[in-house]
Amino acid sequence: MKQTNQMGLPVLTTFTQILSFLNPSLFSPVHFRLSFGAFRELRAVFINVASGEKKHRGEKGAPRDGYPPEKPTNMAAGSARIVRYILFAFFGVMVLYFMSSSSIPRPQLPTTSELKGKQGTTPPGAPAGDVQAPPPMTIEKMAEASNAASVPAAPAPALTNPKQSNDGPTASIQSVAETSGERMNATFVTLARNSDLWEIVKSIRQVEDRFNRKFHYDWVFLNDKPFDMAFKNVTTSLISGKTHYGLIPEEHWSFPAHIDTDKARRVREDMAQRKIIYGDSISYRHMCRFESGFFFQHPLMQQFEWYWRVEPSIELYCDINYDTFKYMRDNNKKYSFVLSLYEYVETIPTLWDSVKTFMNSHPEHIAKDNGMEFLSGDGGESYNHCHFWSNFEIGNLNWLRSQAYTDYFNQLDKDGGFFYERWGDAPVHSIAAGLLLKKDEIHFFNDIAYYHVPFTHCPTGEQYRLDHKCHCNPKDNFDWKGYSCTSRFFDMMKMEKPAGYQDQKD
Which of 238, 164, 154 is nearest to 197 (CA)? Predict the structure, then answer.
């Protein structure tokens, strides 16, 4: 009995050590070495038990000295069987453990510090603004953590900033996702109201899915009223870059001192009777003036060099697999478009007169080899009303901040056409690009398939649409219709029209 007890104690102790190391959360190479040492100890015990049984029974298993087998021998044999069972169980558990450990990756969940995000830098002289909580984990971020495991999204932290209701032009949010590689100093920019939330989120998803999930560029939202928390929370959760929320200064969204408001009111009443689109709207006029001369001056925009304008309810029909901002820089482009058309004549009857006044006053700003051919068929004597549709544009902010553009806008603003007529920012930007830039600095993004009610740009060329997972109907392409000006741009640039364009004409 003593012999059996002495051997059973190390068996029990060794088996306990082995089980203690089978916890997957504690497994490491060190634990493996320890458990392997325990296995060696168990193996030694097994050998001792087996040799003890042989010694007692004799070399061929016969009883020693003619005595019949005793009970301790049976106990030793039972101990040997127990050891064998333990070894088999140990090997089975270890094999299952290593198989499961090697086939199931373990994603790293974000730490608390990673979820807190980073507050954006406050531009010099700008009032303090809100800091929004970072978004929950998105599908893209979880996929980066593990391609096989499914991890629930982390809940957003509570919003505790006491200044949440005061939208300054520096409210910034950092996404959990980290960017990688070289990025341009660029941002998306959107002018929106709180009531636009469920329309702008459609645009955000389009931009993120087709482009920004690869590049994680920032996004600036501007409003003439403070953004509410619902708008901030939802938009932040969808955007992979940092988000900024700014309040438009009152002087950029009001009647300038030199405007006769009674005259402006009579103009709106007259346009309403003539049923001119947005003819009776005050806010639309403020928007056109702001987009023409002030959005790039906002404190939140001062830190950036490039912008991509996005409006509610747009669609991007094709994957964009390259950095459009880098393309603009590398190819010396400063303004771009995807759709062009003729402006409503009734909204800009005297716009070209103001432009000619500017050209006569500042001939030094008129670029050589400019795009006048796109704007006029008679060398600048009259305006043909062609413009690039500015609800989509990628451009250089330093150009808009230049002295040439500043003088141009100041002339138009002084003449009052934003309120005495209904000048839109699209012809204002287009005329500036056509006169102040070389025509080679304007780019047509044929490969960015785009929709803004009611017009569609769908790339001409079936193979391109297949390669870039496009879902637009080429029959809806507006480029070669009679009311489009894109053909005029191709002619000015001496660009060859794509194969099959004739089939898309009216």
Answer: 238
Bridge partners of 438? 370
For 414-424, b where at least 16 C-beta lie within 10 A, e where not — what string?
Answer: ebbbbbbbbbb
Q: Are 404 and 362 in contact (CB under 8 A)?
A: yes
Neighbours of 124 (CB within 10 A): 7
58, 177, 207, 324 from 321: Cα distances, Å: 80, 19, 12, 9
Q: Give pLDDT tens digits for 264-279.
A: 999 999 999 999 999 9
Share of the chain above pLDDT 90, in %: 61
**Neighbour count for residue 241 (Cβ, 10 Å):** 22
Q: Contact 485/478 with Cβ under 8 angstroms?
A: no
Hey, CA dihedral for 333, 337, 342, 348, is it positive or negative?
A: negative
Q: What is the Cα–Cα distance from 482 to 501, expressed in whole angstroms?
A: 13
In terms of DSSP bridges, do strands 306-309 and 186-191 run parallel, antiparallel, or are they unpaired? parallel
Instruction: Judge residue 169's burial from the number of C-beta atoms within 10 Å of its C-beta, 0-12 exposed, 13-18 middle, 19 or more buried.
Output: buried
Query: 443: which 2 tokens?
Result: 């780019």
416 near 282, Cβ under 8 Å?
A: no
139: buried, middle or exposed (CB in 10 Å: 19+, 13-18, 0-12)? exposed
Q: Is 144 considered catalytic here? A: no
Distance CA(140)–CA(4), nearest Å, equals: 61
Query: One of 53, 291, 315, 393 is an active-site residue; which one?
Result: 393
Contact present, 359 and 375 (Cβ < 8 Å): no
Counting Cα atoms < 13 Å in the Cβ hemisphere of 379 gives: 0
Q: How far is CA 387 from CA 16, 152, 400, 470, in A?
A: 81, 48, 17, 26
Contact (Cβ atoms closer than 8 angstroms) between residue 207 and residue 310: yes
3 state DSSP class of 226 = coil
Q: Which residues of 247-285 are buried (b: 16+ CB within 10 A; e: fewer)?
A: bbeeebbebeeeeeeeebeebbeebeeeebebbbeeeeb
pLDDT tens column, 434-478: 999 999 999 999 999 999 999 999 998 888 899 999 999 999 999
Query: What is the C-alpha to C-alpha distance for residues 240 and 139, in angstroms, rounded to an integer?
Result: 11
306 DSSP β-pair partners: 186, 396
Residue 148: which residues within 8 A CB-CB, separation 6 or more?
104, 105
Q: Are 371 and 431 in contact (CB under 8 A)?
A: no
